[in-house]
Specification:
With about 300 residues, the chain is α/β, with parallel strands linked by helices. The strands form three sheets. Strands 7, 8, 9, 10 and 11 form a five-stranded mixed sheet that branches. It has a four-stranded parallel sheet with strand order 4-3-5-6. The longest helix is centred in the first third of the chain and has 20 residues. The chain starts with a helix and ends in an 11-residue tail after the last helix.
């Protein structure tokens, strides 16, 4: 066999092997297996936490479009916005020629996009375990080998936030309002899981669901020690019947998070550790036991 012929054979084998090596399959949260000839390079995201995960994995440059609520990191603000996650602009998405669209399982756009020949991967993290699973799934999709390392750093930072808390605030009974329904973060939500890891007690049990709509009287009867709420939801809170008599309101044991911090708190994604730090700061400065522990109340 001549050297020239040998090189031709090696080139042919490499060519035949390339699609098999590059091809990948991802099963989304609907149980749908989505096949790709290679890792997608043009991505449209219709859920802020998914776009944030793409960026946390160092692949922000692959995003070519996002939903109207995606605003972190700063680089995504320059991208085309394609409407809301539940009601995206299909024509605009098609015009962006994405290799894949990442969306929530609750989005109604998946079938329409698939009918137009666009690949869709539906992922919706709701718990800490989901955040890890989705991060690893997107890492697989983007061919990022160290996704697990990124997750471990996030998880370690949540643990560090918990360890930073003074003993006096542990066991604090907390009410976390997600929006003014009032909708609360229950024990079974990812926010509730973070509160549990911080060593405090959520007044909304897991049996009510992850984000239940509550009768305001329920919260008055529960009489939490501390209230956490975003600035978008705080207006009118003191006009709710009976609320000014609650110990948290009387003692000003209330943390009002500005919009940017609120986004970090309520999105189940890579900023989960930042959310834990914000909650820990709130507890260390506003919980009734904080003064006893040497903090500020």
């Amino acid at each position: 066999m001549t050297t020239h012929f040998r090189w031709l054979l090696m080139g042919l084998f490499a060519l035949l092997a390339w699609p098999a090596q590059a091809a990948l399959q991802v099963t989304d949260d609907h149980g749908v297996a989505v096949h790709f000839e290679r890792s997608p390079q043009r991505i449209v995201s219709l859920l802020p936490s998914l776009a944030e995960t793409v960026c946390e994995l160092g692949q922000c440059q692959r995003l070519v479009g996002v939903d109207r609520y995606t605003n972190w990191p700063a680089a995504v603000k320059a991208l085309p916005q394609v409407g809301g996650g539940l009601d995206p602009n299909i024509e605009q998405i098609v015009a962006l020629r994405p290799d894949v669209v990442l969306m929530a399982t609750s989005s109604r756009a998946g079938e329409r996009l698939r009918a137009l020949g666009i690949k869709v991967v539906a992922l919706e993290p709701k718990t800490h375990a989901d955040v890890q699973r989705v991060m690893l799934k997107i890492g697989q999709l983007l061919d990022v080998p160290d996704a697990l390392k990124v997750w471990r750093a996030i998880d370690a930072a949540v643990m560090a936030a918990a360890q930073s808390l003074p003993a006096g605030v542990r066991g604090t009974r907390v009410y976390f309002e997600v929006n003014p329904g009032p909708y609360a973060a229950g024990e079974g939500s990812f926010i509730g899981e973070t509160l549990t890891r911080l060593g405090v007690k959520n007044i909304v049990p897991a049996s009510l669901g992850p984000f239940p709509k509550l009768n305001p009287e329920y919260i008055v009867r529960a009489d939490p020690d501390l209230i956490m709420v975003g600035e978008r939801s705080v207006d009118g809170m003191n006009q709710r019947p009976g609320w000014m008599g609650m110990r948290a309101m009387r003692g000003q044991h209330l943390c009002v998070f500005p919009a940017e911090e609120s986004d970090a708190l309520i999105r189940p994604g890579p900023r989960m550790a930042e959310g834990a730090r914000l909650m820990a700061r709130c507890l260390a400065t506003r919980a009734p036991g904080a003064k006893k522990a040497g903090g500020q109340s």
